[in-house]
Amino acid sequence: MSAKYQHITDALAQLEEEALVQALKDAVEAGPSAEEAQDIVNACTMGMEKVGDLFEEGEYFVGDLIYAADILKDGMEILAPCIGAGGVSKLGKLVIGSAPGDLHDIGKNIFIAMMEAAGFEVHDLGIDVAPEKFVEKVKEVQPDIVGISGLLTLSLDTMGDVINALKQAGLRDGVKVMIGGNPVSEAVQKRVGADAHSTNAATGVKQCKEWVVA
Question: Which of 22, 125, 180, 210 is deepest in the core (most CB within 10 A)?
Answer without folding.
Answer: 180
